[in-house]
């Protein structure tokens, strides 16, 4: 309301340029290695180090703390997530994990906390950091946490188990979300803290990225490590937008991959794309994808402008969780038997897209 | 810079439209659903005068605005304004909106391609559009009504059906072919004043919904109109490229009208959801976005899904209109939003009836009417399936011969 801007769907010049390099990076460093990485169950050698050329960790960190001092931009972050998701879902999550941690420190940490943690991440080399929110429970509800923090003298003591923590095994710093006095709170936990153990867990998809179980057996953290202005709803909303944006990118990859195939693949003497049952499936994939993308953009743009965006992020999550899975399913179906074969990427996208309705806390924009 | 918030000017338009919808349409919504046929409702006449007054000033403003805002970047023009106002007014009543004199598709066509003289003469009249025939629906290139030049007059022969405002309109824009053997290129549109010699109103349809909006069948038997009543050129393009261009011009109207029709579904679905939330709220159903979908009750989850679907359709419609305002080719996006909004409108209004049970089904509330009204939105101005065809052809790069 304060600024009377026109309704506008055009990117800024900077966003346009960034998208080009992000897309090139996604093509060369993510898409091309996605399948072998999925098979190997880990990120390719040197991959995380190469992601530093994007400068994602440096961007929002104030110059005084070693960063580039760019304004915090959920909208630009959503565009980045979309482009990286086009390359690969797992590797996009790996790439974005440290920035997710940084964004949380920027949003919820006080000045002293920003000074304490951000310089360690705003480095030329890759520093793994992550947010640990999920827990081992069907119908996980972010606000109902089993992981507990209790106050003991100048410290907090954390006890519980966090799941699906992206880069959890290697992260130097983890932002652990736990309940303190029944209220969700966020604690920065150092790698190597006594009582902290991590173990990689295998999932249906996201195989190329480390999705770890983080066990906190009375982990002691100083009181200064509890983020001063933590807002769980904001964290969850911004994370859902990041995950949904990655899904939008992946769904675009599915669509772009299916179009030439249905044109080339012949059945009954003509391309299968000439059949309405096939063509309409492709049309619906594009229609639903367009809706997904705009829902994510709307919420991110409101977040960027400082407007309330919880409702918008919630609706984006609802739509993306369901529609992304449908697009992943349609992709496999359009390829028929070939969609089920690991020579093609369709089955991998299908497995990865199932995570969209499951994952919480990752890729905070 | 990406921004989905409406500027003050459009917010004001939204508020004003909502006042009209709530103050004028809603109170008489049920009454005219029951009356069905008859003359233009008296309550709508002041609106027509207001519209005509606004149309003049808006045209002036749009011209000035167009020049100044191209430098500033994003333009918010007539298409976007049409969506914003349309959604609000259809929150009130779709059928009544279509019955406001001057709201006809014919008006849009004359505004788009008419000569200054035609705009002067017919611009402020209520102009309907007659395309569909008993033997030609979605396949508008197959129309069989003919037009032949005889001296200073065109002579029209044929049958038109499903013509919105065909009874109440002051004039009808009639699609006819100059030469059936020349296909699409020979199809032209003609402004036929109501009651022209040889023109007969043969039937007014009784419909499931949109009852107050008159849907007429018209017969043309050596109907004579002045030579200058043709819209656009009388030339028949003779090269393939020129042919495509000529018919493309006709189809271009859809780039603006399809998002406008999508906006009808937005208004209807929002109206249905609001009433449903209110009725369910009395039963303790609280969909306040506080818990994940999977920890919500089935009925709350339905509300979230419907709202997400509505919001997606809404954003797609705004985008298609914004593209049109900014001179970006939007045929595919116009079809995408029409397809999405059309089915969303059906799904949401029908589900709202179901969720509210007997109250939803009862004529005591408007939910059942919304569900009846919504069906046509997925049919007129191109059915769901036609939109899917268009989207698929654009995406995959197929001709109408390849993807039939």
UniProtKB/TrEMBL annotation, chain A:
The keyword rRNA processing does not apply. Gene3D superfamilies: Acyl-CoA dehydrogenase/oxidase, N-terminal domain (1.10.540.10), Butyryl-CoA Dehydrogenase, subunit A, domain 2 (2.40.110.10), Butyryl-CoA Dehydrogenase, subunit A, domain 3 (1.20.140.10). Keywords: FAD, Flavoprotein, Oxidoreductase. Residues 132-219 form the Acyl-CoA oxidase/dehydrogenase middle domain. Signal peptide: none annotated. Pfam families: Acyl-CoA_dh_1, Acyl-CoA_dh_M, Acyl-CoA_dh_N. It comes from the Bacteria. Residues 12-123 form the Acyl-CoA dehydrogenase/oxidase N-terminal domain. InterPro entries: Acyl-CoA_Oxase/DH_mid-dom (IPR006091), Acyl-CoA_Oxase/DH_mid-dom_sf (IPR046373), AcylCo_DH-like_C (IPR036250), AcylCo_DH/oxidase_C (IPR009075), AcylCoA_DH/ox_N (IPR013786), AcylCoA_DH/ox_N_sf (IPR037069), AcylCoA_DH/oxidase_NM_dom_sf (IPR009100). Belongs to the acyl-CoA dehydrogenase family. PANTHER family: ACYL-COA DEHYDROGENASE, ISOVALERYL-COA DEHYDROGENASE, MITOCHONDRIAL-RELATED. This is Acyl-CoA dehydrogenase family protein. It comes from Alcanivorax quisquiliarum.
From TrEMBL, chain B:
Residues 250-395 form the Acyl-CoA dehydrogenase/oxidase C-terminal domain. Its cofactor is FAD. Residues 128-223 form the Acyl-CoA oxidase/dehydrogenase middle domain. Keywords: FAD, Flavoprotein, Oxidoreductase. InterPro entries: Acyl-CoA_DH_CS (IPR006089), Acyl-CoA_Oxase/DH_mid-dom (IPR006091), Acyl-CoA_Oxase/DH_mid-dom_sf (IPR046373), AcylCo_DH-like_C (IPR036250), AcylCo_DH/oxidase_C (IPR009075), AcylCoA_DH/ox_N_sf (IPR037069), AcylCoA_DH/oxidase_NM_dom_sf (IPR009100). Belongs to the acyl-CoA dehydrogenase family. This is Acyl-CoA dehydrogenase family protein. It comes from Alcanivorax quisquiliarum.
């Amino acid at each position: 309301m304060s600024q009377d801007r026109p309704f506008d769907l055009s990117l800024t010049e900077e966003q346009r340029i960034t998208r080009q390099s992000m897309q090139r990076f996604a093509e060369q460093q993510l898409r091309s290695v996605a399948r072998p990485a999925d098979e190997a169950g880990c990120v390719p050698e040197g991959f995380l180090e190469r992601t530093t050329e994007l400068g994602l960790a440096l961007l929002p960190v104030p110059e005084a703390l070693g960063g580039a001092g760019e304004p915090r931009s959920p909208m630009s972050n959503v565009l980045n997530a979309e482009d990286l998701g086009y390359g690969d879902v797992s590797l996009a999550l790996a790439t974005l994990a440290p920035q997710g941690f940084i964004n949380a420190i920027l949003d919820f940490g006080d000045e002293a906390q920003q000074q304490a943690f951000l310089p360690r991440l705003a480095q030329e080399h890759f520093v793994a950091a992550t947010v640990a929110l999920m827990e081992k429970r069907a119908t996980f509800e972010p606000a109902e946490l089993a992981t507990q923090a209790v106050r003991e003298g100048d410290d907090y003591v954390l006890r519980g188990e966090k799941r699906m923590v992206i880069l959890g095994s290697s992260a130097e710093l983890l932002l652990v979300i736990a309940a303190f006095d029944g209220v969700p709170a966020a604690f920065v936990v150092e790698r190597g803290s006594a009582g902290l153990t991590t173990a990689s867990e295998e999932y249906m998809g996201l195989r190329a990225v480390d999705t770890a179980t983080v066990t906190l057996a009375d982990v002691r953290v100083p009181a200064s490590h509890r983020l001063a202005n933590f807002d769980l709803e904001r964290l969850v909303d911004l994370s859902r937008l990041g995950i949904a944006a990655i899904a939008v990118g992946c769904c675009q990859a599915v669509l772009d991959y299916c179009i030439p195939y249905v044109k080339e693949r012949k059945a009954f003497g003509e391309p299968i794309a000439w059949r309405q049952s096939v063509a309409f499936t492709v049309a619906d994939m594009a229609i639903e994808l367009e809706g997904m993308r705009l829902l994510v953009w709307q919420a991110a743009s409101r977040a960027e402008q400082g407007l309330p965006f919880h409702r918008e992020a919630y609706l984006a999550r609802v739509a993306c969780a369901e529609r992304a899975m449908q697009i992943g399913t349609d992709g496999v179906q359009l390829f028929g038997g070939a969609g089920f074969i690991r020579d093609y990427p369709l089955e991998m996208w299908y497995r990865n897209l199932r995570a969209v309705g499951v994952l919480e806390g990752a890729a905070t924009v | 810079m990406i921004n989905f918030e409406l500027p003050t000017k459009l917010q004001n338009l939204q508020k004003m439209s909502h006042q009209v919808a709530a103050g004028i349409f809603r109170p008489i919504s049920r009454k005219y659903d029951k009356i069905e046929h008859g003359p233009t409702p008296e309550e709508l006449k002041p609106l027509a005068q207001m519209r005509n007054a606004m149309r003049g000033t808006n045209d002036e403003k749009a011209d000035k605005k167009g020049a100044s805002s191209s430098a500033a970047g994003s333009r918010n023009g007539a298409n976007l304004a049409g969506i914003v106002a349309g959604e609000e007014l259809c929150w009130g009543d779709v059928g009544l909106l279509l019955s406001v004199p001057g709201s006809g598709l014919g008006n849009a066509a004359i505004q788009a391609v008419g000569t200054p003289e035609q705009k002067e003469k017919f611009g402020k009249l209520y102009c309907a559009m007659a395309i569909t025939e008993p033997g030609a629906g979605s396949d508008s290139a197959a129309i069989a009504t003919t037009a032949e030049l005889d001296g200073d007059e065109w002579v029209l022969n044929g049958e038109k059906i499903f013509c919105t405002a065909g009874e109440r309109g002051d004039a009808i824009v009639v699609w006819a072919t100059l030469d059936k053997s020349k296909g699409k290129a020979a199809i032209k549109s003609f402004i036929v004043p109501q009651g022209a010699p040889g023109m007969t109103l043969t039937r007014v349809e009784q419909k499931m919904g949109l009852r107050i909006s008159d849907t007429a069948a018209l017969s043309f038997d050596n109907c004579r109109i002045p030579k200058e009543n043709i819209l656009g050129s009388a030339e028949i393009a003779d090269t393939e490229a020129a042919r495509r261009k000529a018919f493309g011009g006709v189809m271009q109207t859809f780039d603006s009208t399809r998002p406008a029709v999508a906006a009808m579904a937005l208004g209807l679905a929002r109206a249905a959801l609001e009433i449903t939330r209110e009725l369910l709220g009395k039963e303790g159903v609280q969909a306040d976005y506080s818990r994940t979908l999977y920890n919500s009750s089935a009925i709350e989850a339905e509300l979230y899904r419907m709202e997400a679907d509505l919001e997606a359709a809404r954003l797609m419609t705004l985008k298609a209109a914004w593209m049109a305002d900014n001179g970006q080719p939007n045929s595919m996006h116009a079809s995408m939003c029409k397809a999405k909004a059309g089915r969303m409108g059906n799904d949401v209004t029908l589900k709202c009836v179901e969720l509210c049970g007997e109250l939803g089904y009862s004529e005591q509330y408007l939910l059942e009417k919304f569900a009846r009204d919504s069906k046509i939105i997925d049919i007129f101005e191109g059915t769901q399936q036609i939109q899917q065809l268009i989207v698929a052809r654009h995406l995959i790069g197929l001709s109408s011969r390849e993807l039939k």
